[in-house]
Amino acid sequence: MNNTHKQYLLGIFLLAICSIQAQKIDPEVNSMAEKLESKVIEWRRDFHQNPELSNREFETAKKIAKHLKDLGLDVKENVAKTGVVAVLKGSKEGKTVALRADIDALPVTERADVPFKSTVKTTFLDTEVGVSHACGHDTHTAILMGVAEILAKHKDKITGTVKFIFQPAEEGPPPGEEGGAKLMIKEGVLKNPDVDAIFGLHINSGTEVGKIRYKPGGTMAAVERFVIDVKGKQTHGSAPWTGVDPILISAKIIDGLQTIISRETPLVNEAAVITVGKITSGVRFNIIPESAEMIGTVRTLDPSMRELIIRRMNEMVPSIAKTYGGEATITFQNNTSITYNDPDLVKKMLPTIEGIAGKENVILSKATTGGEDFSYFQEVVPGFYFFLGGKSPKTEKAASHHTPDFYIDESGLLLGVKVMSQLTLDYLNAQ
What is the pLDDT of residue 19? Predict the structure, then answer.
């Protein structure tokens, strides 16, 4: 065989490899996803126009459950109050993969100029508020409903079992209630059958449609809510020396807490944040009050840094108050753990995402200090959580999540349906 012949065969071989790589998505799945796109958008608009707050997603859950039952799936309702879980068994025995979508909305009045704009109002913490899907959970729900329809009609392609988890209260349950991923796990959502891996996505208003962002390891922060109660001594505002000012103590505590981040935390390792978001104290301009309350959050991406920050806050808060003649206590509530993408699972499934979206559109990103209770699932089983582009190419600067002007370009939903469908098939069929 001469060199020319060898080069010819090598070229044919390389062309074949390229062709295989270009065919990462099953042609039938691809075709069905494209046919379903308008239906997915229709579902999304319905959820968007009829949003419900955490642990109150009653009508949302009914619509989800009806769709899943119509597909012939084994459906369980009222999981973790308003959650819906469905099981699809493939044509052959194998592992079990879970797919999760969150379904709750936020107490945010929508300003986005869309024909399906939310005009819903309700009472939240004794205040009348607007309600809207200002974080994009409506898109997650619609995408997973589309994935369920595709996989239910292609059971013959599935080796194993798929568990669809429609989770309420990702934004956190109302005060005094349980909810979210923690309660779902407590009620056995990852059991019977036991889940081997879990996938989730989040639409992102700042990432252009057609692109996907991901990060192995810690990708979103652990979130702590803290409450600081400061006690002073009430007196007339004209004679502060006759009392103990809890407002002044609060200011000193806030200033001191920031030195934990700026002077004690190794920020070259990971980012960390301490934010005081609410202060309540006093009733009148000329009265130094008896007490003050501060509420805030801690965000960390490294377990050892989290431990350091919380330890130092516990030490610093009462000490500062004592220095100024008062008292202070601090309590913590863990809202989410670190959203940790299993590196081996990411490495295994990344070729699927790159094959569908195009390698140039799949972006390795830095971690964010936002939180996600998908992290609790990842503490139990390996998980992979990534970000799906929802920003229109015509938009220069997109509004942030959790704001009145939040907007998603619906043309990004199709890629989410394709990727989640194919991730499921490739994970299960690679056994």
Answer: 37
Q: Are 345 and 384 in contact, with CB atoms under 8 Å apart?
A: yes
Mean pLDDT value of segment 17-45: 83
Locate 354 and state its tokens: 């790159």
Q: Token match 């692109």: residue? A: 211
Q: Which helix (H) or strand (E) holds 203?
A: strand 197-208
CA dist 142 → 298, 322, 423 (Å):
32, 54, 17
pTM beyond 0.85: the answer is yes
List C-alpha distances in Å: 387 to 84, 165, 198, 276, 303. Answer: 23, 18, 15, 28, 23
Digit-coded pLDDT (tens) for 397-425: 999 999 999 999 999 999 999 999 999 99
Backbone angles phi, psi at 120, to 5 degrees: -70, 140
Q: pLDDT of 210-234, one tens digit each?
A: 999 999 999 999 999 999 999 999 9
Clarify whether 170 is annotated catalytic.
yes
Active-site option among 104, 196, 270, 342: 104
Residues 86 and 72: their CA atoms lie apart, in Å, by 10
Burial of 364 (0-12, 13-18, 19+ CB in 10 A): exposed
Query: What number of CA atoms fall less than 13 Å from residue 250's CA on the CB side?
Result: 25
Phi/psi for 267 (5° steps) reads -70, -10
Helix, strand counts (H, E) of the chain = 10, 18
Are the beta carbons of 190 and 385 closer than 8 angstroms? no
Phi, psi of 153, rounded to the nearest 5 degrees: -90, 0
Looking at residue 17, its pLDDT comes to: 44
The band of 13, judged by pLDDT with boundaries at 50, 70 and 90, is very low
Decide if 149 contacts 71 (C-beta within 8 A): yes
Residue 160 · residue 195 · CB < 8 Å? no
- Is the CB of residue 140 less than 8 Å from the CB of residue 202? yes
Annotated catalytic residue, options 26, 110, 170, 224? 170
Burial 223-251 (b: 16+ CB within 10 A, else e): bbebebbbebeebeeeeeeebbbbebbbe
